[in-house]
């Protein structure tokens, strides 16, 4: 058992040096030997099974039953048509399902977990699935453990192992622990870290001992293999609508069947007509169409660097009216550079240019003494008290951008972290905490051990009793503290982020909780993180769209307000609050004043939750960004939790609804815009399908009620409803984005799906399609001198039905063009700007032409070839719903 071996024995077992890790060249061979570091997913459903699943629908059962009856009474042609339509419907359903599955799979790959490893002496990030036994993995707070590890080094490391042990309290880990017995429960194995558990505090390093299904989590992988086919609220509402319409349709079918029998119509004909009417009335394709539109929509969003983890988030995005965003990295470039530093009572400017260190400087560099230049002591403190890495030769780096900037600052002073870390080994540490806003480390020095502390100047200065000035420690009184804070405040006013450093010496061991007492203040640095160039435009776009951008940061109030003003988020300091001011207010009092706030500075994770809750209590739909371990509660509390893909911890990503791959505020605005467009496309699709279905129902019901011959045969209705409708509906679902969608206010989440004239548009379209289909049938009958109440010869009936059949299909195809925008004409947005819709319409016309022109098809569907004059009449009638809808838009606009 690995927990019975020492760290050194474990390293020897894998033939690995702790400082070097595996040779990168050996990784591919080891991956072939051990396989992927992943839990085996549940076996995918095969294509044949998926195809058969398409028949698991009550409506399909009814159609198959009708096919059996037609076979029994030897109506073979009708039976074949019904079966072909059912098979084609299943094929389209299978295609849609596969498309949706592939879209979701590609998103899962994009958001797969990462691991920080040491290979060939270099540290870099890789896919967790690429790990192999023998890999050296670096752990830090907020990351999931990527495989089973024997810990080699721990610094206040705590891991939450509830996924394995059920114990929610984090376990304290100790790499030096070794157990004699092999009967140690998982929760007591202090020198081990297990796959899928969560690092909640501290840091550590471990060697991978088992991967994939051989891990402890792999042994219980079946428990984790649950399906998560979550339906969105819209899908649920549409499913309910489908059931309601289905009940209404069944009632109408029975009535039509009864009336038809009372009128003396043939029993079998009425049976097939009733079934066809059910197919026409029940929008069975709604949920499937919405699913494919959502899946394709989230795939499109991934191309703009927004990974949507939960489909309901797409709907919610359209309703967001408050975006609470972190400043650093989201509103700014996250390219920190130290431009000024304060030491020995003076403010200095850092020379520009890339950090460079001469080899001779590295090799000759000894440890700093208090008598050395103050800037070297400041740089030494900043460099040693970091967890980031930076390679000056390649420019490669890992870790927090703020710490990377400190390492670059150190290099400019001739201090390299690699050399310093070897010379002054880190003995212990007190990791950064967002409440303390400090980090401290204890290092081994030749004379006395030294503690370095870095962090927010307002927090650090409280813990200092002396200050370093020109090689001496001098008392730090209230006056000096105020002067230092004023100097830092003036730097903050220039949008510089201020970070201070302090130190103290100690003779013996020291507990982490004692690190940050009786310190000597060294100095501070000012870092610039320029606002992203594109953000100002995005903020203006968000404000135009009725969305309120809000900045949340741990930085000083002055720095935050300065940047907020430059970006157009806030106008003056009165629109800002600090974490301390938030803490002083009750939830009710805070909710009353939050409406005026645009900037929140010096906030804690608890403040973030309070901010979200206060905005929500005022009826807002809130998006919140976060990247740290402690941001998970606010991300979950927000209507849309947004995690950072670059700087975000695994915890924040897990708690979020959406991940930004580029950590950019502009991407949030683009995602909201995309979410609005996806919702609009779904609306177009649903209205189109309901209009088409209503048109078919009106055609059949009116003919029965008025004792007319039925204008459409059951097979013709099936063909139009299940074949020609589907492709335009999907094409509408992927309609190009409306560039004016951000000119509208956010959608009220309580608003009915059919609000804003949707119901009237669906009814108007359906009535027009139905009436014009009946008109085409009437024209066909009258062409031969008959009326609808005469006994019609077969030839007349075939001709009239052909006219009705083509008009019903063509009017729906043309009508799809008009459904592209509720307010704008299709000619304004571009007749050919949706090539998929144009292709679907052309394909629909080709199918219709083939059905009435190819003898074998026309005989099967009981239709005939139409002449040029007939086509003129058909096209003219079919264009009327399109023309009326376009004219209505123009009138509404006027």
Topology (elements, then pairings):
Blueprint: H1 7-14, H2 27-34, H3 47-53, H4 58-72, H5 76-110, E1 114-119, E2 122-127, E3 136-140, E4 148-160, H6 162-165, E5 171-172, E6 192-193, E7 198-210, H7 216-219, H8 221-224, H9 233-262, H10 267-281, H11 286-302, E8 306-308, H12 312-317, E9 322-326, E10 337-343, E11 346-349, H13 359-364, H14 374-384, E12 389-390, E13 397-398, H15 401-412, H16 417-423, E14 426-433, E15 438-443, E16 449-455, H17 457-460, E17 464-469, E18 472-475, H18 478-492, E19 496-506, E20 519-528, H19 535-544, E21 548-552, H20 557-567, E22 576-578, H21 579-583, H22 587-593, E23 599-601, H23 605-617, E24 622-626, H24 632-637, E25 640-644, H25 650-655, E26 658-660, H26 665-705, H27 714-724, H28 726-733, H29 758-782, H30 794-818, H31 826-829, H32 835-853, H33 855-861, H34 868-893
Parallel strand pairs: 9-21, 9-24, 17-20, 21-23, 22-23, 24-25, 25-26
Antiparallel strand pairs: 1-2, 1-3, 3-7, 4-5, 4-6, 4-7, 8-26, 10-11, 10-20, 12-13, 14-15, 15-16, 16-19, 17-18, 19-20
Helix pairs in contact: 3-5, 4-5, 4-10, 5-11, 5-27, 9-10, 9-11, 10-26, 10-27, 11-26, 11-28, 14-15, 18-20, 19-26, 22-23, 26-28, 26-29, 26-30, 27-30, 28-32, 29-30, 29-34, 30-32, 30-34, 32-33
Question: In words, what does this structure look like?
Answer:
By secondary structure, the protein is an alpha+beta fold. Strands 10, 11, 14, 15, 16, 17, 18, 19 and 20 form a nine-stranded mixed β-sheet that branches. Helix 25 (650-655) links the parallel strand 25 (640-644) and strand 26. Helix 30 runs parallel beside helix 34 (868-893). The longest helix has 41 residues, at 665-705. Mean pLDDT is 85; it is low at 222-228 and 356-373.
């Amino acid at each position: 058992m690995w927990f019975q071996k020492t760290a050194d024995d474990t390293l020897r077992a894998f033939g690995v040096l702790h400082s070097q890790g595996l040779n990168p060249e050996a990784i591919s061979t080891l991956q072939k030997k051990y396989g992927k570091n992943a839990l085996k997913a549940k076996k995918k459903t095969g294509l044949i099974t998926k195809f058969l699943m398409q028949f698991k629908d009550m409506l399909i059962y009814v159609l198959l039953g009708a096919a059996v009856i037609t076979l029994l009474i030897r109506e073979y042609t009708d039976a074949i048509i019904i079966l072909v339509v059912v098979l084609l419907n299943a094929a389209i359903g299978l295609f849609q399902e596969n498309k949706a599955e592939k879209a979701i799979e590609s998103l899962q790959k994009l958001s797969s977990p990462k691991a920080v490893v040491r290979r060939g002496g270099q540290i870099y990030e890789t896919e967790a699935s690429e790990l192999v036994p023998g890999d050296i993995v670096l752990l830090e707070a907020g990351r999931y453990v990527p495989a089973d590890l024997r810990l080699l080094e721990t610094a206040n490391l705590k891991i939450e192992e509830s996924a394995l042990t059920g114990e929610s309290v984090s376990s304290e880990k100790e790499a030096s622990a070794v157990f004699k017995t092999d009967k140690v429960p998982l929760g007591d194995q202090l020198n081990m870290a297990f796959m899928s558990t969560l690092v909640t505090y501290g840091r550590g390093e471990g060697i991978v001992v088992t991967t994939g299904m051989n891990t402890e989590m792999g042994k219980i992988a079946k428990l984790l293999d649950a399906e998560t086919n979550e339906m969105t609220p819209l899908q649920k509402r549409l499913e309910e609508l489908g059931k309601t319409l289905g009940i209404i349709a069944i009632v109408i079918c029975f009535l039509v069947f009864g009336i038809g029998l009372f009128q003396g119509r043939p029993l079998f004909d009425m049976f097939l007509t009733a079934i066809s009417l059910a197919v026409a009335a029940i929008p069975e394709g709604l949920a499937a169409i919405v699913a494919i539109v959502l899946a394709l929509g989230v795939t499109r969003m991934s191309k703009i660097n927004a990974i949507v983890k939960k489909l309901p988030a797409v709907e919610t995005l359209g309703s967001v009216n408050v975006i609470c965003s972190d400043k650093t990295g989201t509103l700014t470039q996250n390219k920190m550079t130290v431009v000024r530093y304060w030491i020995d009572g003076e403010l200095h400017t850092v020379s520009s240019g890339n950090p460079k260190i001469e080899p001779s400087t590295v090799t000759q560099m000894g440890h700093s003494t208090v008598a050395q230049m103050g800037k070297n002591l400041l740089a030494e403190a900043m460099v040693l008290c970091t967890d980031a890495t930076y390679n000056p030769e390649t420019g490669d780096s890992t870790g927090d951008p703020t710490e990377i900037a400190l390492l670059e600052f150190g290099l400019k002073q001739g201090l390299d972290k690699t050399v310093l870390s070897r010379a002054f080994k880190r003995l212990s540490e007190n990791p950064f905490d967002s409440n303390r806003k400090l980090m401290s480390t204890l290092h081994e020095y030749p004379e006395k051990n030294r503690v370095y502390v870095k962090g927010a100047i307002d927090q650090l200065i409280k813990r200092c009793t002396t200050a370093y000035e020109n090689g001496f420690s001098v008392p730090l009184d209230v006056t000096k503290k105020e002067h230092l804070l004023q100097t830092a405040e003036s730097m903050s006013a220039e949008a510089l982020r201020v970070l201070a450093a302090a130190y103290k010496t100690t003779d013996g061991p020291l507990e982490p909780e004692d690190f940050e007492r009786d310190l000597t203040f060294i100095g501070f640095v000012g870092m610039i993180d320029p606002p992203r160039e594109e953000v100002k435009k995005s903020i203006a776009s968000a404000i135009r769209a009725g969305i309120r951008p809000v900045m949340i940061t741990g930085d000083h109030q002055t720095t935050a307000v300065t940047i907020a003003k430059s970006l157009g988020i806030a106008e003056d300091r009165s629109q800002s609050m600090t974490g301390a001011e938030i803490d002083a207010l009750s939830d009710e009092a805070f909710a009353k004043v939050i409406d005026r706030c645009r900037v929140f500075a010096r906030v804690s994770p608890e403040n973030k939750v309070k901010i979200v809750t206060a905005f929500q209590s005022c009826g807002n739909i809130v998006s919140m960004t976060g990247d740290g371990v402690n941001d998970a509660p606010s991300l979950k509390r927000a209507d849309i939790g947004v995690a950072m893909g670059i700087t975000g911890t695994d915890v924040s990503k897990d708690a979020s609804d959406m991940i930004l791959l580029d950590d950019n505020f502009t991407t949030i605005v683009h995602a909201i815009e995309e979410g609005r467009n996806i919702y609009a496309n779904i609306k177009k699709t649903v209205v189109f399908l309901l209009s088409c279905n209503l048109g078919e129902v009106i055609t059949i019901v009116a003919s029965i009620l008025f004792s007319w011959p039925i204008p459409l045969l059951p097979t013709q209705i099936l063909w139009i409803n299940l074949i020609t409708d589907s492709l335009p509906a999907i094409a509408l679902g992927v309609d190009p984005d409306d560039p004016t969608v951000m000119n509208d206010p956010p959608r009220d989440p309580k608003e009915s799906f059919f609000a804003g004239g949707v119901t009237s548009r669906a009814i108007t379209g359906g009535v027009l399609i139905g009436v014009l289909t009946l008109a085409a049938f009437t024209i066909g009958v009258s062409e031969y001198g008959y009326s609808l109440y005469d006994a019609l010869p077969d030839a007349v009936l075939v001709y009239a039905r052909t006219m009705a059949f083509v008009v019903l299909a063509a009017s729906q195809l043309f009508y799809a063009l008009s459904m592209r925008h509720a307010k704008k004409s299709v000619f304004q947005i571009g007749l050919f700007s949706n090539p998929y819709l144009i292709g679907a319409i052309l394909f629909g016309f080709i199918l219709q032409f083939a059905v009435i022109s190819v003898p074998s098809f026309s005989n099967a569907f009981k239709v005939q070839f139409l002449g040029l004059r007939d086509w003129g009449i058909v096209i003219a009638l079919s264009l009327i719903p399109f023309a009326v809808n376009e004219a209505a838009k123009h009138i509404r606009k006027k």
